[in-house]
Amino acid sequence: MSESEDSILVIVTEEEGVATGGTESETRATDVLLESLVSLMRFFSNRRAFGIFGTFDFKPFSNCESCLSGKMTKQPFNKDNERANDLIEIIHTDVCGPFSHEARGGYRYFITFTDDFSRYGYVYLMRHKSEAFEKFKEFQNEVHNQHDRKIKFLRSARGGEYLSQEFDSHLKECGIVSQLTPPYTPQMNGVSERRNRTLLDMVRSMMCRSTLAISFWGHALETTSHILNKGSTKSIEKTPYEIWTGKKPKLSFLKIWGYEVYVKRTVSEKLKPSSSENKVFVARNGKFLEEKFLNHENTRNDIVEEDTSLPTIEPVTQQENVETQPETVEEVQTQDLRRSTRVRQEPDRYLGFLVSQDDGDVKEPTSYGEAVSGSESEQWQEAMDAEMQSMYDNLVLEAVERKSTEKGEKT
């Protein structure tokens, strides 16, 4: 059976109705189902004769506001983002913080700048979030002097530190295009977000492995940034350091962060150990106790923080093995505190306000009757009147009439 092109073509053969191969009840159920299906298709195919349905050429409806309110979802993110073709063409940046524990130097934030082409990153510690603009100018001057190239695009989140008037004016003067991501879409700034996550994961692992104070997380952060720049990544074939500098990285100087080391003293006496212990400073010569650290035998004491400034992390290219004995600490005998034997006297300016405790004649009254019947009754009455007047003026007291009881007594 066939009709016009807008009709439904239905073909049902008798063989299909009996080719069930089942029992008699199953064959009957199949026949009923096929008969119902044929009737339904004939009804739709002859819709024009009945005049119930029109054509099936429906047009798309406009957006349904109710459906948008109840079913709206986020749009998928395209993984094929635009990549830079050269160094310093696109710079990714983001600010992370504040942290509950301050780093040595009072730092609670850090800002990252990552080159899109080489994935080479810079990290700057900050005390306040408002220092982002100054750190960007510092980074801009450094990369311009090193590579003699200018930044073309600055890709960042829509944070307030990047939307200030001075930041925007500086970008326009330098010809830098600011690429701001939409609100609440960290996926659009994925390079910086992943860099921050990797840095913090490494910092937490390093701090958990060592016995240093939590305030050393700033040093750990700079160390992780140095390691990431010299390590491989999936985004590029070479290491970021090799693309950024044109030289292959050297990893022979790398040591496990946070374990014990003895450092050569710059000025030492002949009979005392030539190495220092439990100090914080920057030095070149030292002996690292790697075996002790790897065998979980490191039992370090509390670290004495002498230098309050934040030293920069520089690679050590040469080390001298100095085997010395740790410095012995002599016990200090504590002495009792010396007590002063001087007789304390009150200043003369307080004599008019002091009442001698040795004078037995001066005694404060304990009741209203004693106050009004004593030798100083007038002074006590003036003091009571002044106190009552003060409570009236401040509306903290209200005078009412006394109520009479059944026996005629007033309460």
From TrEMBL:
Q: Where is the composition biased (Low complexity)?
A: 318-335
Which GO biological-process labels does this protein carry? Answer: DNA integration
- Report the GO molecular function annotations: nucleic acid binding
- Cross-referenced InterPro entries: Integrase_cat-core, Retrotran_Ty1/copia-like, RNaseH-like_sf, RNaseH_sf
Which residues lie within the region annotated Disordered? 318-341, 355-381
Transmembrane feature ranges: none
Q: Which protein are we looking at?
A: Integrase catalytic domain-containing protein
Per the UniProt entry, what species is this protein from, by scientific name? Answer: Centaurea solstitialis
